[in-house]
Design a protein that fits this description.
318 residues; 80% helix; globular; 13 helices; mainly alpha
Length: 318
């Protein structure tokens, strides 16, 4: 193997992961802008249906090449669960994007990392120490700063973005579980099948014939959505979480820039303050998780050596 693939393969995993996530950020922010434009004239259910159909089209070449083997899995129930979570998350996410400033919506979307930390204990049985709990609370205070309850009614689109983030956190747990044994193509194929079946009825019932410009934007959704997912999944596979997490927040820079260029939107001061609290807390959580993971690996290594020498050893995990 030579040329660009060989150069890419020689890059450190963390660098490859960071590059893939940067590309994913640009693609997904572009998707958010397109959804915002389409929502002015087309129903959200129609946009979601196009996104689901695009998932199938994206995986179709791989399915034709690999055949039925791409569908073979011993974890079909988990695939269906992950796909249903995606369908609900997309519906809420697109609804929020269609009615909110791009940077504001993106800021609320970052709360998925806070929900991931919040659910780590009950879903995975992880011990969440006081530091991560404190960082999580600070992050949710950032959400309150952005929403400013009491100064104005909390609108449904903002709540929809938070609901999308909650389901996005659940998706993280299920995807991590699947990624250890399932190929990316299989995960994406099941998402395409299940979400399309779920979105078909509402999408067709609300369908409006798109004009030329709307058709082009729908095609862009069909490219951006699956491509962004592919780059994200492979970026997470390639790099460590502590490296990937900071890179993900470049998406907020993209969102502010595109919101200003296309919609003449600039976030207010409170949105910036809330974003700092949310981003700072989630970066701290990612750092703590990386420290705990390294300590666990080191502890397991010491335990292994102790067992070989005939002595068992306990390891402390924060």
């Amino acid at each position: 193997m030579g040329g660009l693939p060989a150069v890419w393969a020689r890059l450190p995993g963390n660098l490859r992961g960071a590059i893939l996530i940067l590309i994913a950020n640009a693609i997904l922010t572009s998707e958010a802008v397109v959804v915002r434009l389409l929502a002015e004239t087309l129903p959200i259910a129609q946009i979601v249906l196009v996104r689901c159909l695009a998932q199938l089209v994206f995986v179709l070449p791989l399915l034709l090449r690999v055949g039925r083997a791409l569908l073979i899995t011993n974890r079909r129930g988990l695939h269906i669960l992950r796909s249903l979570l995606s369908l609900i998350s997309w519906q809420a996410y697109y609804y929020g994007l269609g009615h909110l400033p791009v940077a504001f919506a993106s800021t609320l979307g970052f709360t998925n990392a806070l929900f991931t930390s919040l659910l780590a204990g009950p879903l995975l049985g992880e011990h969440v120490g006081w530091r991560r709990w404190t960082a999580t609370i600070v992050g949710f205070l950032g959400v309150l700063v952005v929403l400013r309850p009491g100064s104005a009614p909390i609108e449904l689109p903002a709540l929809a973005m938070i609901v999308s983030a909650m389901f996005g956190a659940a998706i993280v747990f299920v995807t991590k579980n699947l990624a250890g044994s399932e190929r990316t193509g299989t995960i994406m194929l099941y998402i395409g099948i299940v979400t399309t079946l779920g979105a078909l009825g509402p999408g067709l019932a609300s369908w409006r014939a798109p004009g030329l410009e709307e058709t082009l934007l729908l095609l862009a959704i069909g490219v951006f959505g699956p491509a962004g997912m592919w780059f994200t999944i492979n970026g997470i596979r390639a790099g460590e979480a502590s490296v990937i997490a900071p890179v993900q927040y470049f998406r907020l820079i993209y969102a502010v820039a595109l919101g200003w260029l296309i919609f003449a939107e600039l976030p207010d001061l409170w949105t910036y303050v809330g974003a700092v609290l949310i981003v700072g807390s989630t970066l701290y959580i990612a750092r703590r998780e990386a420290i705990i993971a390294r300590a666990a690996r080191a502890g397991d290594g010491r335990l292994g050596k102790g067992q070989q020498g005939g002595q068992g050893r306990c390891t402390e995990r924060d």
